[in-house]
Amino acid sequence: MPDKPYSAYTAEDFALDDLFVRWVQHPDDEEVAAYWQNWLSNHPHRSQVVDVAREIITTGSRPAVPALSSEEISSVWGRIRESLQTMEDVRPLQPAVRAMVGWWYFIRTVAALLGVVLLIGWALWMQYGPNQCVSTINTLAHQTREIRLPDNSMVKLFPNSSVHYARCWNDESPRAVWLEGEADFAIVHRTDTSSARLFRVHTAGLTIEAVGTAFQVRHCDKGTRVALTSGQVNLLVKQQKPIRLKPGESIDVMTDSPKLYPSTNR
Questions:
Q1: Which pTM was predicted?
Q2: DSSP type of residue 162
């Protein structure tokens, strides 16, 4: 008799075992019956699993439908062959139809790929496009805001003012903001003092260049006032030579007459 791990078998495993099936279906086989009776006496805790396996085999052995006679089987196969012979042959697609179908699938595939590309492009544009890379900050009446710029310079924006600047600064892009209203600036100093690396504040008719500086800018319809607290700034006005302010100095630039006028008060 086979040496199998019957003690670990499930009911389904027993139902698939040839020796066990023979015992269930042929209980008069004395040798097989003696083997399984001896095995059960040594493994009484497996009797319930064996009973379930017996039921599976017994149930599965019952015919679900009455068995067909050989004449009936021959008749069925005859009708199947006759049906196959009388079926109309499947005609292949005409070349023009095949070409049309091929183009249809090609156009549908291209359209799907184009849609994916456009969707990705739209997402990138929304994230990194020029209109999305600009920050504009406004203050209301009686509202003051402190803003940290991309290079860690600080801006204190006073009421009824606005400032906008590029959110993406790097070594290639200029450090610049555009101001309407009044703001205090505290600029981070950089060792590179070349013209391309200076910090710039733009107002109507005036550009302020700073290195590492603290200054105040007050812009209105009449003009712009710049007051320097520390460091140094250059004031650039159209058709005028640059003016450098010293700490404690302030100057006015009138809109209707773009000239520099030393301020009499701060």
A1: 0.47
A2: E
Virtual CA dihedral for 186, 188, 190, 194, nearest 10 degrees? -40
Helices (H), the chain: 11-16, 18-25, 30-42, 47-61, 70-86, 95-128
Contact between 185 and 155 under an 8 Å Cβ cutoff? The reply is yes
Structure tokens at 261: 């006028």
Cβ distance 178 to 199 under 8 Å? Answer: no
CA dihedral 240, 245, 248, 250 (to 10 degrees): 20
User: What is the model's pLDDT at position 28?
Assistant: 86
Contact status, residue 256 vs residue 233, Cβ threshold 8 Å: no
Sheet of 206-210, strand order: 134-138, 162-166, 175-180, 199-203, 206-210, 233-236, 243-245
Q: 151 and 175 in contact (C-beta within 8 Å)?
A: yes
The CB-side HSE value for 60 (13 A sphere, CA atoms) comes to 12
The token duo for 96 is 């023009």
Q: How far apart are CA 158 and CA 172, in angstroms?
A: 30
Distance, C-alpha 64 to centroid of its chain = 56
Cβ contact 217:195 at 8 Å: no
CA quadruple 256, 258, 263, 266: dihedral sign = positive
235 and 242 Cβ atoms separated by less than 8 Å: yes
* 248 phi and psi angles, rounded to 5 deg: 95, -10
Asked if residue 47 lies in contact with residue 14, where contact means CB atoms within 8 angstroms, the answer is no
Classify residue 226 as exposed, middle or buried by CB count within 10 Å of its CB (0-12, 13-18, 19+). Answer: buried
Contact criterion met (CB below 8 Å) for 218 and 255: no
Q: What is the pLDDT of residues 116-147, one digit of tens each?
A: 887 776 555 545 555 456 789 999 999 999 99
Element (H, E) at 170: none
